[in-house]
Amino acid sequence: MPTTETIRGNWNEISRQCGLEQECLSRTLEYLQKTGRKQSHVDLVEEYYRASDLFGPGASQGVSYSSAVHLDLSSVVPCMAGPKRPQDRVPLSDIKQSFRSSLTHPAGHSGFGLSSDALAPQVVEVEQRSVTVQHGQLAIAAITSCTNTSNPSVLLAAGLLAKKAVQRGLRTPGHVKTSLAPGSRVVTRYLEAAGLSAPLEELGFHTVGYGCTTCMGNSGDVEPEMQAAADKGIITAAVLSGNRNFEGRVHLSVKANYLASPPLVVAAALAGRVDIDFASEALGLDPDGSEVFLSDIWPTPEEVASAVFEFVRPEFFQSEYSREASSSWSALDSAGGSVTYPWDSKNTFIAPPPLLERPTGPVRDAYCLMLLGDSVTTDHISPNSAIRDGPAFEFLRAAGVEKKVVSREPAAVDDDSTEALRARARSKPFGSLT
């Protein structure tokens, strides 16, 4: 169930127009029990699916399909997706060559358009010291709150990998900004019960909150040397366990963004770069100077399954979900109990869209607003990332929004008045009108 939901959760990000369905199996009921559902609810689910002839592995037998797709499971390999789109899957074995090729590939969905002369490492001055930086260095490694942080197997796998890395004496390089933002407080409960929170924190993966953080541009500042590198034209990278990696979304200065599973996020953080062959290159050296490879610390399926069985407990779900989620939310003024929202035209978070005030009728004499190519998303039209200096920045500052909010908290400025201005603040133009 968690794996299936992880796949489903990513499909909509790559504009797939179909869903993945499966029969209700005994393991579906086990999942419901494991996550704290009442037995009466579990029994009702089973009764419904049995009555509908949808229970068990043979539920779909006799169904006539217009076409069938056969998947060779031996062809499934570890992969990441990037550097700019969630549908651009890259086998882990090819990630090094893929990234290096993207540097000189024409600027677009899969390339950065650099000349061969721009590939050399550069020296930047940071806090009165000289630092050598190069393309592919990792600026951000984030286990984020998207679909797969509600998948216990991959979260526990990340913790087990971190534990083995710490035992071998590995540490995360100082230029990598790390964070852990689970999608649920239950994650914290089972990581702590398994003794895995401590090794994750030792590698820098402290819990920074629950909900959308780095994956929607709330990463905050990167380390000074990575910002200096980006300012010099170096293509720095981010690896996150999120669903979206459009250019400029994670951080305005980080151009190459890869989606990966939580354990691969930890592995990339240890390496400190994305231009690495994880099979043949070491993540680092242990205190004795011996090389430590990803294969040395990758948890076995048996270790992960054992951790899930022992530490993912129904009482964790029951106790966390029975409590009030947020006292701050409950304390919000509900405008005197009104059932409708009291619009405030000066509010920069949400304001009434002007189209509601226009009379309805036939559209005549309209003109093209934007002429776009392929793979243009809502992120391009309404960027959900920090707003740098420009028309949108000045508009919000004039409205009294503090600079730190404008530049670091995109969720604080979501009204339609800033949409067009925010689109102009993108890292590159994408329209074709002249």
CATH architecture term of the largest domain: 2-Layer Sandwich
Q: Give the low-confidence spans.
A: none
**Spatial separation of the terminal alpha carbons:** 50 Å
Give Rg in angstroms.
Answer: 24 Å
Mean pLDDT across the residues is 85
Q: What does the largest sheet look like?
A: 4 strands, parallel
Write the CATH fold name of the largest domain.
Aconitase, domain 3
Fraction of residues in β-strands: 5-15%
Q: Helix proportion of residues, in percent?
A: 25-40%
Widest sheet, order of strands: 6-5-7-8
Number of domains: 3
Number of strands: 10
**Which oligomeric form is depicted?**
single chain
Number of DSSP helical runs: 17
SSE arrangement, N to C: HHHEEHEEEHEHHHEEHEEHHHHHHHH
Structural class: alpha/beta
- CATH homology superfamily of the largest domain: Aconitase, domain 3
CATH level 1 name of the largest domain = Alpha Beta
- Give the overall shape, derived from the CA principal axes: globular
Which terms summarize this structure?
two-stranded antiparallel ribbon, 10 strands, 33% helix, alpha/beta, Aconitase, domain 3, 434 residues
What does this structure look like?
- Keywords: Iron, Iron-sulfur, Metal-binding.
- It holds the Pfam family Aconitase.
- It is a single chain.
- The protein is built from 17 helices and 10 strands.
- By secondary structure, it is α/β, with parallel strands linked by helices.
- The strands form 4 sheets. It has a 4-stranded parallel β-sheet, covered by helices on one side. The protein has a two-stranded antiparallel ribbon with strand order 1-2.
- The chain folds into 3 domains: 50 residues, no CATH class; 242 residues, Aconitase, domain 3, CATH 3.30.499.10; 86 residues, no CATH class.
